[in-house]
Amino acid sequence: MSTLPNVHVLPDSAWLSHLHLSMRNRSANLNTFTHHANQVIRLLLQSAAQHLPYSDETVTTPIGDPFTGKALVRDVCGVSVIRAGESMESEFRAMFPHQPIGKILIQRDKESKLPHYLYSHLPAGIAGMSVMLFEPMLATGGSLLKAIDILKESGVAIENMIVVNVLASPAGIQRLVETWPDLTIITSSIEKGMTDSAFMRPGIGDFGDRYFGTYPGVHHE
């Protein structure tokens, strides 16, 4: 559990531990990895949905009784940090079938480790939406901070952003929180640290490569 008020780690459970065990195994084939990753992603999105703004709304049930529940105050936009973030789009679509998805492409220089913004395509009116920002791996935090800058330039308030993340390093979390204290972050694990190559440990490898089947030596069956 995190002691930071806006950082929310999925509750520890035997089931979540099972999903992580299956994903993190270097021997997991493509189907095994994506099957278990999708279940973690769904848990993350359900957790993120708890932090959206709602208002009370009353409907009439088939027997004529009133029922008061929660209705979303505004539209929700998913925004993928290409490419790993695109792994979350399918589960987002299943939960929010009528909501848009935007894209941001940021490439990290392999030597300097600095992020370079290359491209974005965001829906009109995004400034008035709640935004779930999809970035499975939060290591140094540089790419995510750059993506947040792009969203802010498009008029999205920090208070209306929710980062949806699978694994985060302590340093990456701290960097984000120090830069944007009001940013909401949902993750399934805060890792022990990072290697000199900025891979998290114990880690999962390159999430995008493993999810999309381009990891060196990946087994597809």
TrEMBL record:
GO MF terms, alphabetically ordered: uracil phosphoribosyltransferase activity
UniProt EC number: 2.4.2.9
Keyword terms, alphabetized: Glycosyltransferase, Transferase
Keyword Repeat: no
Cited InterPro entries: PRTase-like (IPR029057), PRTase_dom (IPR000836)
SUPFAM superfamilies in UniProt: PRTase-like (SSF53271)
Keyword Repeat attached: no
Pfam families: UPRTase
Domain Phosphoribosyltransferase: start-end pairs: 12-214
Protein name: Uracil phosphoribosyltransferase
Taxonomy of the source species: Bacteria, Pseudomonadati, Pseudomonadota, Gammaproteobacteria, Enterobacterales
This protein's encoding gene: upp
